[in-house]
Give the backbone structure.
Amino acid sequence: MATENILEIKNLNKSYNDSLGTENVISDMNLTVKEGDFLSILGPSGCGKTTLIRCICGFEDYEGDIFVEGEKVTKPGIDRMMVFQSFDQLYPWKTVRGNIEFPLKKQGIKDKAELDRIVKKQLELIGLSGYEDHYPHQLSGGMKQRVAIARGLALKPKIILMDEPFAALDAMTRNKLQRELHKIAEKEHLTVIFITHNIQEAIVLGTRVMLMSNHGEVKIDIENPIPKPVTPDSPGYGELWRKFEDALEN
Amino acid sequence: MKQARTQLIFVIAVLAVWEYISRSGQVSALLFPSLEKIGESLVKGFTKDDLISYTLYSMGLIARGLGIGILLSFVFSGLSVVSKHFSYIFNFVVSVMDLIPGIALLPLAILWFGIGQTTVIVIVVHGVLWPMSRNILDGFKSIPSIYVESGKNIGLNGLELVTGIYLPASFNSVLSGLRVGWARAWRGLISIEMVFGTTGSGAGIGWYIFMKRTNLDTAGVFASLLVIIFIGLIVEYGIFHIIEIKTVRKWGIIKNGN
């Protein structure tokens, strides 16, 4: 059914021009994402995966079509919230509360009680209740990323775009955040596109896992057969990991 | 505290050296008046020579000139974010105008605006506007793109992007722009007052210094310089330092140092 495709990408082409000439980053890419999909996208550096979600987010000009619920993407908007890799994505001049409230206020939510309720709910969701009045520089990297996720979720976007949000975290924090994100995504029935370099992360989080190679060529695109929660001893994990590992090597 | 102590020791040392030179008799007392003379002159300035009203007169002019200058800097720098073409033009204008000393514009300003407060304020605005805009523009340029993109992501555009993202994100540069602007305003004003003398409605501290010099009252000159320094210290520690603590320091944008 066409209506349940929340995202449709048709014949996407994207190239960058610089002094060295024109570089084709994505050529003729097609992709559809259903509502409730958690799509993990794996790929080597420079394969165009970040460019892809930047196009979806509306940060880049592109050729071809990107539709979100039938509407063509022409500029950034709150229906597609991006969570970046950098710890510096929170506004340092605002508290945790301010960071979450600011975009909401811009959307016209002025009622103090309503704002309080949303902030409280979001912080509970990400396990940071009590940190309302902290400034970003007082938080650890993992906490900052959680607040960034909460800030995005508070706007109830149609799609959440995540560009390696956990890549700069230590392994333990990373595993913890993966588990939390998985829970939140299931509970809130989120549609997520999650870029990562990490095969384990892609398999643990994704309901669908995709592997891109150069110029946006999709080499593998499968429904994740392993039931959640995925751990390294889940049946089939080893084979699936190997499959992606081999494809990445080539 | 450690910082204040070091600075205090430095000031006392400078004063001690000063007093030593003054008392040694090697230099004319006219060039190096003793601290006592300067102190006397300072007290006399306020009690007899009406130094306070000269000072207030200058402060009044500065407040207006600085206010207009700051406002224009924000407006023009903000427009540079919104419009690329405006940005090209404004960057060019700032580079050109920043090179022209206010005092060099004085003859023109007198022809255009007459001998009065308007002329002085125009020159003060000229002194503030360009260096402050330069600071703000440079600050805007060095904002991490992630703030701007995140701002666009949540639907900010044009003016909202300027006030919501650009200004707070570059607040450290804005603050140093304010400091530079304030200093340039003071300097500009005092030099004009020295050249200009009195306007119809009153005279400022620059004119006071000029009169003291004419009367070869060196202690009086130093006394009025002290007034300028005191005002500078009050503005730095009473305004800028407080703003700094309540903003960029609280936000962790600058961490330590002075």
Notes: Helices of chain A lie at 49-57, 96-106, 112-125, 141-154, 171-188, 199-205, 237-249. DSSP finds seven helices and ten strands in chain A. Chain A touches chain B at residues 57-59, 75-78, 80-82, 84, 86, 88-89, 91-93, 102-103, 106-107, 135-138, 155 (CB under 8 Å).
